Amino acid sequence: MHHKLRARELTRTFGETHALGPVDLQLTPGEFVCVVGPSGCGKSTLLRIAAGLTRPSTGTLEISTSSPRPAAMIFQDYGIYDWKTVLANVRFGLDIQKVPRREANTRARDWLARMGLADFADAYPSALSGGMRQRVAIARALAVEPEILLMDEPFAALDAQLRTILQDELLALTQTTRTTTLFITHSLEEAIVLGDRVLVMSARPGRVIAERRPPFARPRTGDIRSTPEFTALKGELWDLLRGEVHQEQHTAAVPA
Question: Fewest CB atoms less than 10 Å from the CB: which of 78, 185, 209, 254?
Fold first, then answer.
């Protein structure tokens, strides 16, 4: 089977601390994979290795794409530029790719419209709410039409209601674009709503200790949250995680 992303025997140490691995992981084209695990288990380190921001200590992570800039990353803290307008922020990746300005503006405005931000194209991020800022970050990432989307707890800083709304929006978007996505989250609900697969990581050093496939056909909506199957899977995942979280609380913190 063709894989978009494959990690083999991947590990990462920070000084004397064994933070991650060994991890074996693969994503097939169009798949949305969520990774949950306790704080400090190496979830974000895994994503940073996938993004090329951190090198593995041992093992390999390969991305198989046809694009010279295959991956786009979305962080928890938005990662948008306060001195650029909303339009310029969304256009930023296209400018780096040297897309002609007229085409870049058209694509950026299209994504702003899809994210409900068309009226804010000329505003600056300081004028936006947290949810709107995260929408700008998502629009910027998707505007470059990445083959792989890497998301590091993008909704963690938002209140519960807004988080639910953005989960549903992302669900609708990614089902339409079928962008291969690796999504890091602390939220079991988020993982079940969004994921084709949910991977559970152990306490440090983070390893994949379980995999579950939410039993919901696509296209799906946030209505699955009210089903008995959703509640049952959330309980099962929490049973898996509870011991890992307890173990994590008895170890010193290192970079996640």
Answer: 209
Give the whole-angstrom CA distance, residue 251 versus residue 171: 35
Provide CB contacts within 8 A for 183, sequence distance 6+.
Answer: 32, 33, 34, 35, 151, 190, 191, 194, 195
What structural domains and CATH numbers belong to the chain?
A: 5-70+146-248 (3.40.50.300)
Quickly tell me which residue has 């803290």 as its tokens: 77
By the 10 Å C-beta count (0-12 exposed, 13-18 middle, 19+ buried), 108 is classed as: buried
- What is the rounded CA–CA span in Å between residue 133 and residue 153? 14
Q: Distance from CA of residue 170 to its chain's centroid?
A: 10
Quote the CA–CA distance of 97 and 87 in Å, as a whole number.
16
CA distances from 240 to 1, 30, 132, 168, 252 (A): 29, 27, 34, 25, 21
Query: How many Cβ atoms are within 10 Å of 119's Cβ, its own excluded?
Result: 10
Own/partner pairs, 120-123, CB within 8 angstroms, 24+ separation: 120/86, 121/85, 121/86, 121/87, 122/85, 122/86, 122/87, 123/85, 123/86
What is the tens place of the pLDDT at every residue in 231-246?
999 999 999 998 887 7
- Helix crossing, 101-114 with 130-143: angle to 10°? 130
On whether the CB atoms of residues 42 and 256 are closer than 8 A, the answer is yes
Res 77: pLDDT: 66
Neighbours of 177 (CB within 10 A): 14
Q: Please report how many Cα atoms fall inside a 13 Å half-sphere around the Cα of residue 3, on the Cβ side.
A: 13
Asked whether the beta carbons of 220 and 171 are under 8 A apart, the reply is yes
- The pLDDT score that the predictor gives to residue 254 is 46
